[in-house]
Write a structure and sequence with these properties.
The protein is of the alpha+beta class. Helix content is 28%, strand content 19%. The protein has an 8-stranded mixed sheet. A hairpin with a 2-residue loop joins strand 8 and strand 9.
């Protein structure tokens, strides 16, 4: 089966972690111009301490409880429609599984560059250590390095790109991806309930299909934190994304809503969950895939791990009939998901441009 990373490459670029060390030292080298974007601080950013503008918080325990499930499902549906993002607490993924994953991801990024290069991307794949979405020699670059892996199903893994150090890395990723995906499938059921659909309708699109994991390292940028971006504004092409963040005291993720950027203050122990393009399309717009970006701190690093749940890449992607409400019209065209991914991964990140092109209105 085709997957979400192979046959599509990214042009090689300098290692940002090493570049940051050079630019942040006492006799600082200037930040290369390719990393200097238009001033991110020029766009309105809502104060992070304004709780009235925080993304919603959903309690998984309440979703499971028959006495509170209906009300929390409605809140979940509203969060996915209005924000496309929410934080999930009391999710049940064991603390030890998460701690082991994050410890090993940090351990990987702390290795010398030569050790990390053992997992470097190849010309025909986005898997491995490097950067994605670099498609031209003159485009602006993101101030971050990443390790991207296909983690499930196990038979889809390409072990050339899986670190052997730390020694426990592979086991940690395996345990985490299984536990987190069980959670994602439950969430999809509750999301379907929240809009009055059969719980199996959404789960069936994604269950057993490819899951990819992207570990992100965002170095500090002492010189120009307000001029570089860790991750350009974009939507995710998949169905559902579960994000974990180390160092909760370092804000980086920002979500776009009503023309403004809203910083996400990640709660300790919570997942940040967001809707991707595939889920917006199959839900006929009931759920929104929202533009988001990552900004950089001047003196502190930030590390995060995103787990992406993809639909079957051989399926024709379009609104599910049971999610087109009575009296509503079909709002999105139908395409092969493989073609959709090719368009996504062979262009630079560009907000909602791709998914907007599939709207019929």
């Amino acid at each position: 089966m085709a997957d979400a990373a192979r046959g599509m490459g990214s042009l090689p670029v300098a290692n940002v972690q090493a570049l940051a060390e050079t630019c942040n030292n006492g006799v600082a080298e200037p930040v290369p111009r390719r990393y200097l974007s238009k001033d991110p601080s020029a766009e309105e950013v809502v104060a992070a301490d304004d709780s009235s503008h925080a993304i919603p918080v959903i309690d998984f325990r309440k979703l499971l409880d028959p006495e509170s499930s209906e009300e929390e499902c409605a809140r979940l549906g509203s969060a996915c429609h209005r924000w496309g993002f929410f934080q999930l607490i009391n999710h049940g993924v064991p603390d030890e599984v998460i701690a082991n994953l994050m410890k090993d991801v940090v351990g990987f990024f702390k290795q010398p560059l030569e050790a990390k290069k053992e997992c470097a991307q190849q010309a025909d794949s986005l898997e491995g250590y490097g950067q994605a979405f670099v498609v031209s020699e003159d485009q602006k670059l993101d101030w971050a390095d990443m390790l991207y892996l296909i983690v499930q199903p196990r038979e889809s893994r390409d072990m050339r790109f899986w670190p052997t150090r730390p020694a426990s890395f592979r086991d940690s990723v395996d345990s985490y991806s299984l536990e987190a995906s069980k959670l994602a499938y439950h969430l999809l059921e509750f999301m379907a309930k929240g809009v009055g659909a059969d719980p199996a309708s959404l789960r069936g699109v994604f269950q057993g299909q490819v899951r990819g994991m992207r570990a992100n390292y965002y170095p500090p940028c002492r010189q120009a934190a307000d001029r570089v971006l860790g991750l350009s504004p974009h939507t995710d092409p998949n169905g559902l994304t579960l994000l974990l963040q180390m160092n909760h005291d370092v804000q980086g993720l920002q979500v776009s809503k009503d023309g403004r950027w809203f910083p996400v203050q990640a709660l300790d122990g919570a997942f940040v969950v967001n809707v991707g393009d595939a889920l917006e399309i199959v839900s006929n717009g009931a759920f929104k895939s929202v533009e988001h970006r990552a900004v950089i701190h001047p003196t502190k690093e930030r590390i995060s791990v995103a787990l992406f749940h993809f639909p079957d890449q051989d399926r024709m992607l379009g609104p599910l009939p049971e999610l087109v409400k009575k009296g509503d019209r079909v709002r999105y065209g139908t395409t092969s998901y493989q073609d959709f991914l090719k368009q996504y991964f062979t262009a630079k990140l560009d907000g909602r441009k791709l998914i907007e092109s599939f709207k019929l209105e």
